[in-house]
Amino acid sequence: MSEIRKRNKEVAIEKPSVIDNKIENKTTIFFSRIVVISSLLIVVYFSSKDEKVITFASQTETLIGKGLVVECSQDYINEINKYDECYPKECKRFVTDQVVSAREVDNLLKIAKKGFQFGGSDGGASILDLHSGALSKGQHFINIYKIEATKYLFSENDYNILRVIKEKIKYAVAQHFGADPNKLYLTSPTFFSELTSRKPSNIHDEYWHPHVDKETYRSFHYTSLLYLGDYGVDFKGGRFVFIDEKFNRTIEPKKGRVSMFTSGRENFHYVEKVTSGVRYALTVAFTCDKQFEIN
Ligand SMILES: *[C@@H]1O[C@H](CO)[C@@H](O)[C@H](O)[C@H]1NC(C)=O
């Protein structure tokens, strides 16, 4: 009997401490939940800030083709309306790693470097336009076709390599936008670019400003870019960025990667500053207006 009472007593004594424990546990759980929830909120807040930039085409992937349809800007429609067979089925961006081979890229790089060794802007951006002969040098441009040393710098073979690439890209553009390749004309400027992290010395060096190609170059209807180097390997920074309403979308340059897009306001974009290394690319543009055709 006394044992039972004793046990009861013990139980009676123990009870309050169990309740206390439970209360303590509940408070701990309550506070740890607050900590977990608020840290989750913090993580979500910061990662959603980061998520405003989407990688549309990563350097590490090889794309057969990836496209995104965007709504054509009114200005673009108004202008391109009159060119029946050059009219895009839809405005969009398209990236493919299948059009230009590694060998072709190597050849193009040799051509670009051969030209750039005679030029080079004081700032971070240089261009070489083999059609007009314009080459950045110091604060200005020189015309390589007017200088003895560079007049015959490029061989017939170099021009042929370039011509083949431009044709290939033209057919790819025509195919992906549903246009007639015979109604699509290569236009000016079509050029090699060399971007470095050097400080800008004039406005031409400031390639990172957001812009609409159609507003910079009136004759452009389709813009395409061929990358000659790898993002994160040959250079840092220098991603191509489409500025969209909710998210910005980046294209990471990759050797042989071709991006193409309609040149209107629907494809507002900029190129990030290169922070190290050298970034080479070839800009190839097409117009629907035959009067702006170049060879
Ligand atoms: C996209 O980039 C532009 C230019 O750098 C910037 O002003 C804008 O805030 C960015 N948009 C988003 C959603 O991050």
Provide an overview of this structure.
The protein has 295 residues and is of the alpha+beta class. The chain has 2 domains: 1-51; 53-292, Sandwich (Jelly Rolls), CATH 2.60.120. Helices cover 34% and strands 27% of the residues. The protein contains 6 helices and 16 strands. The chain has helices at residues 2-50, 74-80, 102-116, 148-151, 156-177, 213-216; strands at 53-57, 66-70, 91-96, 120-121, 125-128, 134-138, 140-143, 185-195, 222-227, 235-237, 240-243, 248-251, 258-262, 269-271, 274-277, 279-287. The strands form 4 sheets. It has a 7-stranded antiparallel beta sheet, covered by helices on one side. Strands 1-12-11-14 form a 4-stranded mixed beta sheet, with no helix packed on it. A 3-stranded mixed beta sheet has the order 4-6-7, with no helix packed on it. Strand 6 and strand 7 (140-143) form a beta hairpin. The site of 2-acetamido-2-deoxy-beta-D-glucopyranose has 5 residues, from loops.
What is the structure about, briefly put?
The chain crosses the membrane at residues 30-48. This protein has helices spanning 2-50, 74-80, 102-116, 148-151, 156-177, 213-216, and strands at 53-57, 66-70, 91-96, 120-121, 125-128, 134-138, 140-143, 185-195, 222-227, 235-237, 240-243, 248-251, 258-262, 269-271, 274-277, 279-287. By secondary structure, the protein is of the alpha+beta class.
